[in-house]
Fold this protein.
Amino acid sequence: MYGVSVEEGGGAGHEARRCVLSKDRFPETTGGDKTTILFDLENQPGALVKVLSLFSSRGLNATMLQSRPSRLDPGAGLWEYTFIAEYLGHIRDQGLAEAYAEVEAGLGTLCKRIRLLGSYPRSSMGEND
């Protein structure tokens, strides 16, 4: 896989995830890609639903959503979170690009920060991996 040889197998039923690094931030689309986005919400009712609906209204499938304590503003307290979302598709795909641009345009209204972490080929381990 990716020109890397397997030195030792993990045995039956064991799977391992590998990270593929690239100098190109957004490699060419493969037709089977994922995109990971990080964002910090403004503290207002429904902000998370509003952001996620910008993606779902374009038929984009979220395969992962995680929250982590935010370190964006150290004085914000314990209840501010950074969200990491993973979507099927490439940032160069029209729907994903439009949704990202709309969230980005809402900086200061919906989000304090949005950052595109990258687009990359999906794993071949499973349908949603």
Remarks:
- The longest strand covers residues 111-121.
- The helical segments are 47-56, 94-105.
- The chain is about 15% helix and 30% strand.
